[in-house]
Amino acid sequence: MTIRDTSHDIDETVTNEVTRATSLVRRTSSRHVITRMAETTMLEPAQFDRMRLIHREESARPHSDAFREIRTRLLDLANGHNFVTLLAAVSPHSGSSFVARNLATAFAFDVAKTSLLIDCNLRYPAQHKALDVEPSSGGLIEFLDAPGRGIPSMIYPTGIPRLRLIPAGTARENGSEYFSSVPMRAAMKTLRGRYMDRYIFLDGPAISGSPDARILSDLADFVVVVAGYGRDTAKSISQAVANFAPGKVAGVVFNHAP
Prior knowledge:
The chain is α/β, with parallel strands linked by helices. It has helices at residues 16-21, 30-34, 45-50, 61-78, 96-108, 127-130, 140-145, 176-179, 182-194, 212-217, 234-241, and strands spanning 84-89, 114-119, 156-157, 163-166, 198-203, 222-228, 249-255. The termini are close together.
């Protein structure tokens, strides 16, 4: 698993309507809030293994170290600021969802940080299933359809300390109008701005065949492109990277590397 480098930027828009809907969310001392982020249930090592998640046991060390290395690279690029990272696969089934939830978990390993994973693959949502989360109150789509329901309604605990999930919600064929909407941009501004030590990970759809990943990149500081080892060619990887502003592409991760 390897990663190459670069830098960042973010685009943000807000309206009074959505600001009122999320006004209860204010910037707070993240360290104070982190101490109150207790889990009602905690995953055991065997559950981490079943979910294909990294953990602190010795058996998972090689994979854990690989994701910690990516975490270190992103933190170096961010120069002390929290950030939003989009993870997008070159092609379907290249493993961006796997990389997204494990990278979010790696950030949550740090007791001084929290991570928030947002499933933005609206056509094929999978993170709630992978993390055994039942989205009883809906997810991102339900919030964007009715912002007045409030941001807390779409955030779920995962059983992993300091890691929260926003599931996609009801599947949609086309996410472009949602990702470019004012409520989406306002929600991202609020989610990022509430805590200084919150790191947000967008699990996006595949780059090929859809503009959704490119549109999502407008909401991110960094883009990590996920290539399937032995699946995606050098040409297809280069074409995928070319979809994004060069200053945002933090690197390419090769998934399923031996």
